[in-house]
Amino acid sequence: MEAPARTLGVLAVDMMSQPCRALVLLDALSGGGLVERKTVLIHKAQHLSEEERARNPIGKLPYLELSDPAGERVLTESHAIARYLAAASGGRVPRHLYPTGDALACARVDALLDWQHTNLRQGAAKLVFAEVIGPRRGLAVPPAIVEQARSTLNAALRAMGETHLAGGRREWLGGLADASFADVSALCELDQLRTLGGAYEALVAGPHPVVAAWAERTRRRLEPHYSRATDMLRRVERRASSSASRL
Ligand SMILES: N[C@@H](CCC(=O)N[C@@H](CS)C(=O)NCC(=O)O)C(=O)O
Protein backbone atom coordinates (compact mmCIF):
# COMPACT_ATOMS: atom_id res chain seq x y z
CA MET A 1 0.00 0.00 0.00
CA GLU A 2 1.29 3.48 -0.90
CA ALA A 3 2.02 5.73 2.11
CA PRO A 4 -0.23 8.83 2.18
CA ALA A 5 1.56 11.99 1.01
CA ARG A 6 2.69 13.90 4.10
CA THR A 7 1.41 17.35 4.90
CA LEU A 8 3.53 20.45 4.54
CA GLY A 9 2.48 21.83 7.90
CA VAL A 10 -0.35 22.94 10.13
CA LEU A 11 -2.51 25.73 8.71
CA ALA A 12 -4.06 27.95 11.38
CA VAL A 13 -7.38 29.36 10.18
CA ASP A 14 -10.63 31.00 11.16
CA MET A 15 -13.25 30.20 8.52
CA MET A 16 -14.71 33.72 8.88
CA SER A 17 -11.45 35.10 7.50
CA GLN A 18 -11.27 35.52 3.71
CA PRO A 19 -7.56 34.63 3.20
CA CYS A 20 -8.10 31.56 5.42
CA ARG A 21 -11.02 30.37 3.28
CA ALA A 22 -8.95 30.88 0.13
CA LEU A 23 -6.21 28.55 1.43
CA VAL A 24 -8.69 25.96 2.67
CA LEU A 25 -10.18 25.99 -0.84
CA LEU A 26 -6.73 25.65 -2.42
CA ASP A 27 -6.09 22.57 -0.28
CA ALA A 28 -9.50 21.04 -1.08
CA LEU A 29 -9.12 21.74 -4.82
CA SER A 30 -5.74 19.98 -4.63
CA GLY A 31 -7.34 16.82 -3.29
CA GLY A 32 -6.89 17.72 0.41
CA GLY A 33 -4.08 16.75 2.74
CA LEU A 34 -1.52 19.41 1.73
CA VAL A 35 -1.89 20.76 5.25
CA GLU A 36 -3.43 19.83 8.57
CA ARG A 37 -5.98 22.38 9.67
CA LYS A 38 -6.14 24.04 13.09
CA THR A 39 -8.91 26.46 14.06
CA VAL A 40 -8.01 29.67 15.89
CA LEU A 41 -11.03 31.90 16.59
CA ILE A 42 -10.44 35.61 16.05
CA HIS A 43 -13.71 36.70 17.73
CA LYS A 44 -12.55 34.88 20.88
CA ALA A 45 -9.11 36.60 20.57
CA GLN A 46 -7.45 33.17 20.49
CA HIS A 47 -4.94 34.49 17.92
CA LEU A 48 -3.73 36.95 20.57
CA SER A 49 -3.27 34.41 23.37
CA GLU A 50 0.20 34.12 24.85
CA GLU A 51 0.69 30.71 23.29
CA GLU A 52 -0.40 31.86 19.83
CA ARG A 53 1.66 35.06 20.02
CA ALA A 54 4.74 33.02 20.90
CA ARG A 55 4.13 30.88 17.81
CA ASN A 56 3.00 33.65 15.45
CA PRO A 57 4.12 37.10 16.66
CA ILE A 58 2.46 38.86 13.68
CA GLY A 59 -0.88 37.91 15.23
CA LYS A 60 -2.76 37.50 11.93
CA LEU A 61 -4.39 34.49 10.31
CA PRO A 62 -3.78 32.44 8.29
CA TYR A 63 -0.32 31.14 9.12
CA LEU A 64 1.38 27.88 8.26
CA GLU A 65 3.44 26.11 10.88
CA LEU A 66 5.92 24.31 8.68
CA SER A 67 6.64 20.61 8.95
CA ASP A 68 10.27 21.13 7.84
CA PRO A 69 11.31 24.65 8.75
CA ALA A 70 14.57 26.04 7.47
CA GLY A 71 14.80 28.98 9.87
CA GLU A 72 11.56 30.38 11.26
CA ARG A 73 8.83 27.81 11.88
CA VAL A 74 5.91 29.97 10.79
CA LEU A 75 5.05 31.30 7.34
CA THR A 76 2.49 34.12 7.10
CA GLU A 77 0.62 35.89 4.25
CA SER A 78 -1.96 33.81 2.40
CA HIS A 79 -0.56 34.48 -1.06
CA ALA A 80 2.97 33.47 -0.03
CA ILE A 81 1.56 30.35 1.64
CA ALA A 82 -0.34 29.46 -1.56
CA ARG A 83 2.83 29.83 -3.64
CA TYR A 84 4.78 27.70 -1.18
CA LEU A 85 2.15 24.96 -1.20
CA ALA A 86 2.13 24.93 -4.99
CA ALA A 87 5.93 24.82 -5.22
CA ALA A 88 6.56 22.32 -2.41
CA SER A 89 3.70 19.85 -2.91
CA GLY A 90 5.20 17.93 -5.82
CA GLY A 91 2.52 18.87 -8.35
CA ARG A 92 -0.49 18.25 -6.11
CA VAL A 93 -1.82 21.81 -6.64
CA PRO A 94 -3.55 21.87 -10.06
CA ARG A 95 -1.64 23.96 -12.59
CA HIS A 96 -4.62 26.10 -13.44
CA LEU A 97 -4.66 27.34 -9.83
CA TYR A 98 -0.95 28.14 -9.72
CA PRO A 99 1.25 27.21 -12.71
CA THR A 100 4.51 26.39 -10.89
CA GLY A 101 7.48 26.05 -13.24
CA ASP A 102 6.21 28.58 -15.79
CA ALA A 103 7.72 31.91 -14.68
CA LEU A 104 5.52 34.15 -16.80
CA ALA A 105 2.29 32.27 -16.05
CA CYS A 106 3.09 32.48 -12.31
CA ALA A 107 3.81 36.20 -12.66
CA ARG A 108 0.38 36.69 -14.29
CA VAL A 109 -1.34 35.10 -11.29
CA ASP A 110 0.96 37.03 -8.90
CA ALA A 111 0.10 40.33 -10.59
CA LEU A 112 -3.60 39.69 -10.01
CA LEU A 113 -2.95 38.70 -6.38
CA ASP A 114 -0.85 41.83 -5.74
CA TRP A 115 -3.46 44.01 -7.41
CA GLN A 116 -6.11 42.49 -5.21
CA HIS A 117 -4.24 43.22 -1.99
CA THR A 118 -3.74 46.88 -2.81
CA ASN A 119 -7.20 47.50 -4.31
CA LEU A 120 -10.05 45.07 -3.64
CA ARG A 121 -8.91 44.19 -0.12
CA GLN A 122 -8.35 47.86 0.77
CA GLY A 123 -12.04 48.48 0.05
CA ALA A 124 -13.76 45.26 1.14
CA ALA A 125 -11.77 44.50 4.30
CA LYS A 126 -11.85 48.12 5.50
CA LEU A 127 -15.59 48.34 4.93
CA VAL A 128 -16.22 45.14 6.90
CA PHE A 129 -13.96 46.42 9.66
CA ALA A 130 -15.79 49.75 9.76
CA GLU A 131 -19.28 48.22 9.69
CA VAL A 132 -18.94 44.97 11.64
CA ILE A 133 -15.62 44.29 13.36
CA GLY A 134 -14.87 47.81 14.66
CA PRO A 135 -18.30 48.32 16.32
CA ARG A 136 -18.06 44.81 17.83
CA ARG A 137 -14.76 45.85 19.42
CA GLY A 138 -16.29 49.08 20.69
CA LEU A 139 -14.59 51.28 18.05
CA ALA A 140 -16.62 53.98 16.32
CA VAL A 141 -15.22 54.38 12.80
CA PRO A 142 -15.62 57.96 11.44
CA PRO A 143 -18.14 58.20 8.55
CA ALA A 144 -15.42 59.67 6.27
CA ILE A 145 -13.39 56.44 6.62
CA VAL A 146 -16.46 54.32 5.79
CA GLU A 147 -17.12 56.48 2.74
CA GLN A 148 -13.51 56.17 1.63
CA ALA A 149 -13.62 52.36 1.95
CA ARG A 150 -16.83 52.26 -0.10
CA SER A 151 -15.32 54.42 -2.80
CA THR A 152 -12.09 52.33 -2.92
CA LEU A 153 -14.21 49.17 -3.21
CA ASN A 154 -16.32 50.65 -5.99
CA ALA A 155 -13.23 51.72 -7.97
CA ALA A 156 -11.67 48.25 -7.53
CA LEU A 157 -14.86 46.51 -8.69
CA ARG A 158 -15.02 48.81 -11.73
CA ALA A 159 -11.39 47.97 -12.63
CA MET A 160 -12.07 44.29 -12.08
CA GLY A 161 -15.05 44.32 -14.46
CA GLU A 162 -13.62 46.62 -17.11
CA THR A 163 -9.99 45.46 -17.11
CA HIS A 164 -9.42 42.06 -15.48
CA LEU A 165 -12.65 40.67 -16.93
CA ALA A 166 -12.56 42.87 -20.09
CA GLY A 167 -16.17 43.97 -19.68
CA GLY A 168 -17.38 40.34 -19.53
CA ARG A 169 -15.44 39.00 -22.51
CA ARG A 170 -13.14 37.07 -20.17
CA GLU A 171 -14.34 34.12 -18.14
CA TRP A 172 -11.60 34.26 -15.48
CA LEU A 173 -9.51 37.10 -14.04
CA GLY A 174 -6.70 38.24 -16.31
CA GLY A 175 -8.11 36.25 -19.25
CA LEU A 176 -6.49 33.03 -17.99
CA ALA A 177 -7.75 29.75 -19.43
CA ASP A 178 -9.28 28.52 -16.16
CA ALA A 179 -9.90 29.75 -12.61
CA SER A 180 -6.59 30.49 -10.87
CA PHE A 181 -5.82 31.08 -7.20
CA ALA A 182 -6.37 34.79 -7.98
CA ASP A 183 -10.04 34.04 -8.73
CA VAL A 184 -10.30 32.00 -5.51
CA SER A 185 -8.71 34.74 -3.42
CA ALA A 186 -10.75 37.58 -4.98
CA LEU A 187 -14.00 35.66 -4.56
CA CYS A 188 -13.24 35.06 -0.88
CA GLU A 189 -12.53 38.77 -0.49
CA LEU A 190 -15.90 39.74 -1.99
CA ASP A 191 -17.78 37.09 -0.05
CA GLN A 192 -17.06 38.81 3.24
CA LEU A 193 -19.40 41.63 2.13
CA ARG A 194 -22.19 39.12 2.71
CA THR A 195 -21.80 39.72 6.43
CA LEU A 196 -23.11 43.28 5.90
CA GLY A 197 -26.78 42.35 5.48
CA GLY A 198 -27.90 43.13 1.92
CA ALA A 199 -24.73 45.03 1.05
CA TYR A 200 -23.51 42.45 -1.46
CA GLU A 201 -26.43 43.21 -3.76
CA ALA A 202 -26.12 46.98 -3.24
CA LEU A 203 -22.34 47.16 -3.62
CA VAL A 204 -21.53 44.36 -6.07
CA ALA A 205 -24.42 42.67 -7.87
CA GLY A 206 -26.35 45.85 -8.75
CA PRO A 207 -23.62 48.24 -9.95
CA HIS A 208 -21.11 45.62 -11.20
CA PRO A 209 -23.00 42.87 -13.10
CA VAL A 210 -19.85 41.61 -14.88
CA VAL A 211 -18.16 41.01 -11.52
CA ALA A 212 -21.33 39.43 -10.08
CA ALA A 213 -21.54 37.02 -13.05
CA TRP A 214 -17.84 36.11 -12.64
CA ALA A 215 -18.41 35.52 -8.90
CA GLU A 216 -21.29 33.13 -9.63
CA ARG A 217 -19.21 31.32 -12.29
CA THR A 218 -16.27 31.02 -9.88
CA ARG A 219 -18.47 29.69 -7.06
CA ARG A 220 -19.81 26.99 -9.40
CA ARG A 221 -16.26 26.16 -10.56
CA LEU A 222 -15.13 25.65 -6.96
CA GLU A 223 -17.97 23.32 -5.93
CA PRO A 224 -18.44 21.10 -3.98
CA HIS A 225 -15.61 22.61 -1.93
CA TYR A 226 -16.98 26.16 -2.02
CA SER A 227 -20.19 25.30 -0.14
CA ARG A 228 -18.22 23.48 2.55
CA ALA A 229 -15.68 26.31 2.98
CA THR A 230 -18.41 28.97 3.24
CA ASP A 231 -20.80 27.12 5.52
CA MET A 232 -20.09 29.34 8.53
CA LEU A 233 -20.07 32.52 6.42
CA ARG A 234 -23.53 31.69 5.04
CA ARG A 235 -24.87 31.18 8.56
CA VAL A 236 -23.57 34.65 9.51
CA GLU A 237 -25.02 36.05 6.28
CA ARG A 238 -28.46 34.67 7.13
CA ARG A 239 -28.27 36.30 10.56
CA ALA A 240 -27.12 39.62 9.04
CA SER A 241 -29.92 39.59 6.43
CA SER A 242 -32.58 38.99 9.03
CA SER A 243 -31.55 42.15 10.91
CA ALA A 244 -32.06 45.53 9.23
CA SER A 245 -29.64 46.35 6.39
CA ARG A 246 -26.93 48.69 7.60
CA LEU A 247 -25.89 50.09 4.22
N1 LIG B 1 -2.40 39.94 4.05
C1 LIG B 1 -2.74 38.92 5.01
C2 LIG B 1 -3.97 39.37 5.79
C3 LIG B 1 -4.05 38.70 7.13
C4 LIG B 1 -5.18 39.30 7.95
O1 LIG B 1 -5.40 40.54 7.95
N2 LIG B 1 -5.89 38.43 8.67
C5 LIG B 1 -6.97 38.88 9.50
C6 LIG B 1 -8.20 37.98 9.24
S1 LIG B 1 -8.82 38.22 7.62
C7 LIG B 1 -6.61 38.72 10.96
O2 LIG B 1 -5.90 37.82 11.34
N3 LIG B 1 -7.13 39.61 11.81
C8 LIG B 1 -6.96 39.54 13.23
C9 LIG B 1 -6.62 40.85 13.83
O3 LIG B 1 -6.31 41.79 13.08
O4 LIG B 1 -6.65 40.95 15.06
C10 LIG B 1 -2.98 37.58 4.30
O5 LIG B 1 -3.34 37.58 3.12
O6 LIG B 1 -2.74 36.54 4.91
UniProtKB/TrEMBL annotation:
SUPFAM superfamilies: GST C-terminal domain-like, Thioredoxin-like. This is Glutathione transferase. InterPro entries: DUF7962, Glutathione-S-Trfase_C-like, Glutathione-S-Trfase_C_sf, Glutathione_S-Trfase, Glutathione_S-Trfase_N, GSTT1/2/3, Thioredoxin-like_sf. Residues 102-243 form the GST C-terminal domain. Residues 7-93 form the GST N-terminal domain. Gene3D superfamilies: 1.20.1050.10, Glutaredoxin. It comes from Prasinoderma coloniale.
